[in-house]
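Researcher: Please predict.
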Amino acid sequence: MSKMVRWALILLVLLPLMGCRISLLHLNEDKDTLTFVVRADSDWQDTGIQVKPGMRVRIRQVSGLWSPWSGSTYDAVGSGGDPHCDCNVAEGISHAALIGKVGNSQPFYVGRDFDQHLGERGTLYLRINDTHLQDNAGALEVVIEVER
């Protein structure tokens, strides 16, 4: 046994005893993971993920900010503001929030951390909740996990 392997085994035993948590990589054949960038100046963006009824979909914002107009930046929660403004794609949802839809279904709020079993079939799309895209800037990076 090489010296490096021996030290690695010793650390694997000692670190948990010292209170350190070890996270081992677990590959799951029943889950697909994708990193995707959602642009603020683009309409519905095709993630390439095909959803079937009952599938669990998790979407988490990992970085980035965007703006529905110059001068302010927001994360996936959006600006708040009037959720019934005609500048929103999805009424009742925070302006500039991250929203999604499956196929031609109704848009839904994604925000910073979405985790649901979806009932629709089709392609998963994401976008900013804003109808005036020409003055938008920035992007959000999200991680999408889909359990098959």
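Model: The beta strands are 31-39, 45-51, 56-67, 98-102, 108-109, 113-117, 122-128, 137-147.
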